[in-house]
Amino acid sequence: MKTILLPGLDGTGLLFAKLTENFPECLETEVISYESLEGITYAEQGAELAKRFEDTDIYIVAESYSGRVAYEIYKLLGSRVKGIVFLASFISAPCLLSKLAGLLPVSFLSVNFLSNKLLYLFGFSLMGGQTLVYPVFASLQTANKRKLKLRLCNIAGLSKQQQVLACPVIYIRPSRDLLISASAVKYLASMCSSFSQVEIEGGHFIAQSNPVACAKVICNAFNVASALIKLNLKEDYNEQHIP
Questions:
Q1: In whole angstroms, what is the distance from residue 222 CA to residue 216 CA?
Q2: CA-CA distances (angstroms) from residue 62 to 9, 72, 236?
Q3: Burial of 156 per CB tally in 10 Å (0-12, 13-18, 19+)
Q4: 38 — phi, psi (to 5°)?
Q5: How many angstroms separate the CA atoms of 117 and 193, rounded?
Q6: Which element (helix H / strand E) includes 165?
Q7: Please, are residues 81 and 73 in contact by the beta-carbon 8 Å criterion?
Q8: What is the largest CA-CA distance in the chain?
Q9: Each residue of 180-204: pLDDT tens digit?
Q10: DSSP of the chain
Q11: Which of 39, 90, 165, 214 could serve as 48's disulfide partner, Cβ 3.0–4.6 Å?
Q12: Tens digits of residue pLDDT in 22-68
């Protein structure tokens, strides 16, 4: 089983660096970059990745923007998805203002005095030190600006869905997330047959501000999923070979 890490709005995967440093070497991971995908919409991105992993059991870690991509992958791969960890993420409109995300100029995401202060406030809830914003701006600067704008439009166009996630779902909820509303988390929970929530101290960019705690939750969830796979394989073997 492979762990697939789907990035946030920047789409580069670069912001997973501190998180993956805290994974054990035995954990097979693949960090996805939307820069290399042809798909533009959530459905297209999900379909492209589902095609890539259609013959593999996967465990998905979806950060922020990518919650809906994880959902689209599950719709196509079903039981191949052994679990999902949502990192301060969403599958529907994350807040009321998100409907205006497509109107946000990409230039607003460039580093300057104002954007620096706003990112530290809304992204990190004024916790952990202002230097935390620097890697975020660095990753945004490497992103394809056209694709970045289209990802903002994808968020603005999010609507509610029908299919329930039947795999185990864990939601890592920052203690001070100013970007994801409680109603968005509640809706996600309602779309899962097995949902648990873990609160970790920090703001929206929780994998960047508290990577050790996030990595511990992810590794524990992966280990549980792996144990269940082994148990199911053992039961299948016994059914076939024990009269």
A1: 10
A2: 11, 12, 31
A3: middle
A4: -85, -30
A5: 39
A6: strand 165-174
A7: yes
A8: 72
A9: 999 999 999 999 999 999 999 999 9
A10: -EEEEE--TT-SSGGGHHHHHTS-TTS-EEE--GGG----SHHHHHHHHHHHTTTS-EEEEEEGGGHHHHHHHHHHHGGGEEEEEEES--SS-SSGGGGGGGGS-GGGGS-SHHHHHHHHHHHHTT-S-GGGHHHHHHHHHHS-HHHHHHHHHHHHT-------EEEEEEEEEETT-SSS-HHHHHHHHHTEEEEEEEEESS-S-HHHHSHHHHHHHHHHHHHHHHHHHHHHHHHHHHHHH--
A11: 39
A12: 999 999 999 999 999 999 999 999 999 999 999 999 999 999 999 99
Tell me the C-alpha distance between 95 and 181, whole Å. 5
Answering whether pTM is above 0.70, one says yes
- Taking a C-beta distance cutoff of 8 angstroms, is the pair 140, 109 a contact? yes
Per the rule left: phi > 0, alpha: psi between -120 and 50, beta: everything else, 144 is beta
3-state DSSP call for residue 27?
A: coil
Tokens for 93, please give them: 């409109």
Task: Check: CB of residue 7 under 8 Å from CB of residue 56.
Answer: no
CB distance 216 to 192 below 8 Å: no
Helix (H) or strand (E) holding 206: helix 206-209
Q: Pick the residue with more confidence: 237 or 118?
A: 118
pLDDT band at 110 (very low <50, low <70, confident <90, very high): confident
Residue whose pair of structure tokens reads 């104002």 in the numeric block: 114
